[in-house]
Design brief:
Blueprint (H helix, E strand, L loop, with lengths): L1 E3 L2 E3 L6 H7 L21 H10 L8 E7 L1 E2 L11 E2 L3 H18 L9 E8 L7 H12 L4 E11 L6 H9 L4 E7 L3 H6 L9 H11 L2 E9 L6 H14 L3 E6 L21 H17 L3 E3 L3 E3 L4 H7 L3 E4 L2 E4 L5 E5 L4 E4 L2 E5 L3 H9 L5 E6 L2 H16 L1 E3 L11 H12 L3 H5 L3 E3 L3 E4 L7 H6 L17
Parallel strand pairs: 3-6, 3-15, 4-5, 6-7, 7-8, 8-9, 9-10
Antiparallel strand pairs: 1-2, 10-12, 11-12, 13-14, 16-17, 17-18, 19-21, 20-21
Helix pairs in contact: 3-4, 3-11, 5-7, 8-9
The structure holds iron/sulfur cluster.
């Protein structure tokens, strides 16, 4: 039996049949509404007010996201917002602009709000000098308290880490680290222009633990050229031996019309759809047999890791950085090109290109490309979708209470989705006793499909989402 939120459930094996049926295109709900719904046309004052209102509504905790959009070389699978091969002077200029953006935004946020997370993403943040990263951390924390269990996290290209640099990152205040390994197979890595780390992943992970990093994560990608079910099983096995606290297994999204460099992978042996499904099934079985808890459909965590415990206690949360624990995240304020702020009442996405971002910031304006302000009804919908996605549960007696919805009002708003539950109940993916909907252990791998039922915006702008596998 498996324990889910204190309930005992029969164990579940992910099968190819299950994936074929439920892996349909749709949002991943790292935000609600999803980013394709963000739009232009907001005034600077609208958005400043949105940031100021976050002081009095929603979670008090602050999470800061800092985007560093530079990489030394181009990985051919990359779907991130980044710029390749910029000189050191451009990186220095960028950090100066970040400082100007912080000048503009930080005074809008109450000093009394505790900081529960600072997350550096990219791009390759670890390619930047550690002293620049440390200065950003000090600036974000000046006059503010860190909450207990606060995370200061960095996404790293493991090929650009040395042991002294790892120690410097820890010294600068980082306590979480994620290594984007992608695969252990040298042939696969060479096909996608990604070198194997000079320090073995197992050593990087053990040294990270020795320095006091927790929640040490390894990213893998499946669907890359040259991968087979057998080769990826080897990668799963070597990951288990390296023993990270968490593993994220992303499905490669091939979108050459949006990312030119991906086109070249078409002649390098991309696996077919059935192979990808087979890899997903094997990966799930491999990590579960290795003692990891599945988090969502493609993340895994050791049972004593914060993420696994958050899932067990119903404290799992989801934002643009992926799964996180409610205890260590809050309303997210983003800095840097393409960064997204995720506030209680809305979202603000910065312009993506670093030069344009810099010009706008230096002119004294907010560098905003698109934004979204949620109505009270949309905040209700977000709460319902997050409850399904993160806790596998929807309790009609409580949902929406924080937005002033009575139980009958909540029931009325959710009725269109509840009326379409039949096939999910028949397939054993969830139970519904008239008040509480609960995903079963099997249904936890189809929570997106269940969440789709309660998304009134689904179908608006169809075809803009990829499959999960
Ligand atoms: S290091 Fe990451 S962000 Fe940079 S090119 Fe490679 S995949 Fe993209």
């Amino acid at each position: 039996m498996t324990e889910i939120h204190g309930r005992r459930e029969p164990p579940f094996s992910l099968t190819a049949e299950f994936l074929r049926k439920y892996d349909v295109p749709g949002p991943r709900y790292t935000s609600y509404p999803p980013a394709p719904h963000f739009r232009t046309g907001w005034s600077q004052e609208d958005l400043e007010q949105l940031i100021v209102r976050s002081n009095g509504t929603g979670d008090r905790n602050l999470s800061f996201y800092v985007h560093i959009p530079f990489c030394p070389k181009q990985c051919l699978f990359c779907g991130c917002t980044t710029e390749i091969g910029k000189p050191g002077s451009a990186v220095l200029d960028y950090f100066q602009v970040l400082d100007r953006e912080m000048d503009r935004i930080l005074p809008l946020l109450d000093r009394s709000r505790p900081v529960s997370q600072i997350h550096f993403g990219g791009g390759t943040p670890n390619a930047a000098p550690v002293k620049f990263l440390a200065q950003v951390i000090q600036r974000l924390l000046a006059g503010r308290a860190l909450s207990p269990h606060a995370e200061i996290a960095i996404e790293c290209d493991p090929n650009l880490i040395t042991l002294p640099k790892l120690a410097d990152l820890r010294q600068a205040g980082f306590n979480r680290i994620s290594f984007g390994l992608q695969d252990f197979d040298l042939d696969v890595l060479s096909r996608v222009n990604r070198p194997f780390p000079r320090i073995s992943p197992a050593e990087l992970i053990s040294q990270s633990h020795a320095l006091g990093f927790t929640g040490v994560n390894l990213d893998l990608i499946y669907g890359l050229p040259g991968q087979t079910r057998e080769s990826f099983l080897q990668t799963v096995q070597r990951t288990l031996e390296a023993s990270p606290d968490r593993v994220a297994t992303f499905s490669y999204a091939h979108v050459p019309w949006a990312k030119d460099h991906q086109k070249s992978l078409e002649s390098k042996g991309l696996p077919d759809a059935e192979t990808k499904i087979g890899i997903a099934v094997d990966t799930f079985a491999g990590f579960v047999a290795g003692g990891y808890h599945p988090i969502g459909m493609d993340h895994y965590a050791k049972p004593d890791d914060e993420l696994a415990r958050a899932q067990d206690t119903g404290e799992l949360h989801r934002n643009f950085q992926g799964y996180c624990s409610k205890r260590t995240t809050g309303q997210v304020v983003g800095f840097g090109a393409s960064a997204i702020s995720q506030l209680h009442e809305g979202y603000i996405q910065n312009v993506k290109e670093s030069a344009a971002y810099g010009q706008i910031v230096v002119s004294g304006n907010l560098p905003v490309e698109r934004a979204y302000i949620l109505s009270r009804e949309e905040r209700f919908d977000r709460e319902a979708i997050n409850s399904v996605m993160c806790r596998g549960e929807l309790d009609l007696s409580r949902i929406g209470a924080s937005e002033g919805f009575s139980a009958p009002q909540a029931r009325e708003r959710l009725a269109p989705g509840l009326n379409r539950l039949g096939p999910f109940l028949a397939d054993g993916l969830c139970t519904f006793d008239g008040t509480v909907l609960r995903a079963t252990s099997q249904g936890r791998f189809a929570v997106r499909n269940i969440a789709f039922l309660f998304d009134p915006l689904l179908g608006v702008g169809e075809g803009r989402y990829s499959r999960t596998v």
